[in-house]
Amino acid sequence: MTIKHLSGLIAAPFTPMYADGSVNLSLIPTYYAFLKRNGVKGAFIVGSTGEGVSLSLEEKKAVIEAWGACTKGDMDFKVMPLLGGTSLTDCMELARYARSTNMYAVAFTAPFYFKPADAATLVQCCITVAQTVPDMPFYYYHIPVLTGVDIPMYNLLQELHGKLPNFAGIKYTHEDFMDFQSCLNFDNRRYDMLWGRDENMLSALAIGATGAVGSTYNYAAPLYSDLINAFNSNQLEEARMLQQQSIDMIHLLGKYGGIATGKAFMKLVGVDCGEFRLPVRNMSAEQFARFSADVAALGFSQFSAR
Amino acid sequence: MTIKHLSGLIAAPFTPMYADGSVNLSLIPTYYAFLKRNGVKGAFIVGSTGEGVSLSLEEKKAVIEAWGACTKGDMDFKVMPLLGGTSLTDCMELARYARSTNMYAVAFTAPFYFKPADAATLVQCCITVAQTVPDMPFYYYHIPVLTGVDIPMYNLLQELHGKLPNFAGIKYTHEDFMDFQSCLNFDNRRYDMLWGRDENMLSALAIGATGAVGSTYNYAAPLYSDLINAFNSNQLEEARMLQQQSIDMIHLLGKYGGIATGKAFMKLVGVDCGEFRLPVRNMSAEQFARFSADVAALGFSQFSAR
Amino acid sequence: MTIKHLSGLIAAPFTPMYADGSVNLSLIPTYYAFLKRNGVKGAFIVGSTGEGVSLSLEEKKAVIEAWGACTKGDMDFKVMPLLGGTSLTDCMELARYARSTNMYAVAFTAPFYFKPADAATLVQCCITVAQTVPDMPFYYYHIPVLTGVDIPMYNLLQELHGKLPNFAGIKYTHEDFMDFQSCLNFDNRRYDMLWGRDENMLSALAIGATGAVGSTYNYAAPLYSDLINAFNSNQLEEARMLQQQSIDMIHLLGKYGGIATGKAFMKLVGVDCGEFRLPVRNMSAEQFARFSADVAALGFSQFSAR
Amino acid sequence: MTIKHLSGLIAAPFTPMYADGSVNLSLIPTYYAFLKRNGVKGAFIVGSTGEGVSLSLEEKKAVIEAWGACTKGDMDFKVMPLLGGTSLTDCMELARYARSTNMYAVAFTAPFYFKPADAATLVQCCITVAQTVPDMPFYYYHIPVLTGVDIPMYNLLQELHGKLPNFAGIKYTHEDFMDFQSCLNFDNRRYDMLWGRDENMLSALAIGATGAVGSTYNYAAPLYSDLINAFNSNQLEEARMLQQQSIDMIHLLGKYGGIATGKAFMKLVGVDCGEFRLPVRNMSAEQFARFSADVAALGFSQFSAR
Question: Where along the chain is the active site annotated (chains A, B, C, D) (predicted)?
Answer without folding.
Answer: 141 (proton donor/acceptor), 171 (schiff-base intermediate with substrate)
